[in-house]
Design a protein that fits this description.
Keywords: Membrane, Transmembrane, Transmembrane helix. This protein is α+β, with helices and mostly antiparallel strands. The chain is built from seven helices and eleven strands. Helices cover about 40% and strands about 20% of the residues.
Length: about 450
């Protein structure tokens, strides 16, 4: 019997539908699998990038904090240098006024037959004439310079207090500011994409709470490092440490005409809390005397001018210069200006002693490791915030995370490096006197990874 063309037996109808349903289910399973895998991969990548951004931002804050201390330390040193210069100028100006009056009266330098000319002090003679003819100007200048110096020291004291307060506030506020910054950076990477959690306690924190693990504040007798830097900076102005010269006629004592002019002056930082300047001038003559069984060359001194200016100590205190009467006007009762109010060298921040004493040339790094977590219900997978939700038997093919959170760990490192080599070829070790602190990301240690896993889910 012939079957009509296109006719299908009743028992074969609908068999292709079964294979179609299996194919459709398999396709849906593959679709969910690909969707969840892609979303999960994107979530992990984004969480790692966010962790890097958070760790790097914290590192930048650490580097800026260290550089801020370096800049403020430099400003504090500049203040001290200004005080040293003000003290030096005030002492020098007062001395010049005193010397000018002596040039008129004692040295007779308004006359062509002056004492320096008669003694053959050819180098000192023109100086004496200049001072004698400018005595009236020198008197007024000495008062003006002293007044201006006192005002400058008072301003420097106020600036010092502000700078010290800024360092203390920075150290006190850094921990809370860092915590807030890290969460802000993390949230900015997940705008409208759910929540992300930054651990409050880092895995590694070399900076520590208020920097206690890396830097410390030096005060009292621990300010010697700041003193060394300050004195070196102040002495670069050659007028500050030494203002001395001599003028001698070169004749031997036996001629009974030997003479010498001595100009002495300088400024020192005495201890940790006092700047002291002194300036003197005197003429020395020698007379040759013959005795019954011996002879002698006796020296006579004529003081021409002296002044002293201090900051931080009471007037009349031994200034530590020592020497003869002409070398130590304060101790010998020479003219001395009233000392200015000065609180001494400031307290300052620097690396801790064990870091400063590091024997190698490599500066100590500052590491910071942080962990970020994201709950699976915040991800854009089918188990989380995605609108695609499987049901029934398809729910068995969800992403099935090993835990209820995704986790990422990142580490930043702050290091000290000059942007260019020193001109003297020496290696500069890390400190808080130069703002050369930089930051980069480094590999996270296995210890920090183990610690992050052991912490489990955030509470």
């Amino acid at each position: 019997m012939l079957r009509p063309l296109g006719h299908t037996p009743r028992r074969e109808a609908g068999q292709a539908l079964i294979f179609g349903l299996f194919g459709l289910i398999g396709g849906l399973v593959a679709l969910f699998f690909l969707f969840n895998t892609g979303q999960l991969t994107a979530e992990k990548t984004k969480l790692v990038n966010t962790a890097d951004a958070v760790a790097y931002s914290a590192g930048v804050m650490h580097a800026r904090a260290l550089n801020f201390d370096a800049y403020t330390n430099r400003a504090l040193i500049a203040n001290e240098v200004m005080i040293a210069q003000a003290v030096s100028m005030a002492s020098w100006a007062t001395y010049v006024a005193d010397h000018s009056n002596s040039a008129q009266s004692q040295m007779n330098c308004t006359n062509q037959y002056s004492v320096p000319v008669r003694l053959g002090l050819l180098t000192y003679a023109p100086v004496c004439y200049s001072l004698a003819f400018s005595a009236s100007i020198a008197d007024g200048s000495g008062t003006s310079v002293s007044s201006a110096g006192q005002t400058a020291v008072a301003a420097a004291e106020q600036a010092k207090n502000v700078l010290q307060a800024a360092q203390v506030n920075m150290a006190a506020d850094l921990f809370l500011a860092r915590k807030s910054l890290m969460q802000e950076v993390a949230d900015a990477n997940y705008v409208n994409e759910g929540a992300v959690h930054v651990d409050n306690i880092p895995l590694t924190d070399d900076f520590g709470l208020n920097g206690s693990n890396f830097i410390t504040r030096y005060a009292d007798n621990d300010r010697t490092r700041f003193k060394d830097a300050t004195v070196e900076a102040a002495n670069r102005d050659r007028f500050v440490p030494k203002r001395s010269w001599d003028s001698a006629n070169g004749l031997p004592c036996i001629t009974d005409s030997k003479a010498e002019f001595r100009r002495r002056g300088g400024t020192e930082l005495i201890g940790l809390d006092e700047w002291r300047a002194m300036d003197t001038a005197s003429v020395h003559t020698w007379s040759f005397n013959v005795h019954l069984f011996s002879f002698s060359c006796d020296e006579d001194e004529t003081p021409l001018g002296a002044a002293s200016q201090g900051a931080g100590a009471s007037s009349g205190r031994d200034n530590g210069f020592g020497g003869s009467r002409s070398d130590n006007p304060v101790a010998s009762g020479y003219a001395s200006s009233k000392d200015w109010n000065y609180s001494g060298l400031p307290k300052f921040y620097d690396l801790k002693q064990d870091l400063l004493k590091a024997s190698d040339d490599l500066p100590p790094p500052l590491r910071f490791a942080v962990r970020l977590t994201r709950s699976k219900d915040q991800t854009r997978t089918s188990e989380g915030r995605s609108a695609v939700k499987p049901s029934g038997r398809l729910a068995k093919f969800d992403s099935k995370l090993a835990s209820d959170v995704l986790m990422a760990v990142s580490t930043s490192e702050v290091f000290f490096r000059r942007p260019s080599s020193r001109s003297d070829g020496k290696t500069e070790l890390a400190s808080l006197f130069n703002p050369f602190w930089q930051v980069h990301l480094v590999s996270t240690s296995s210890a920090d990874i183990a610690k992050a896993i052991a912490l489990g889910e955030p509470r």
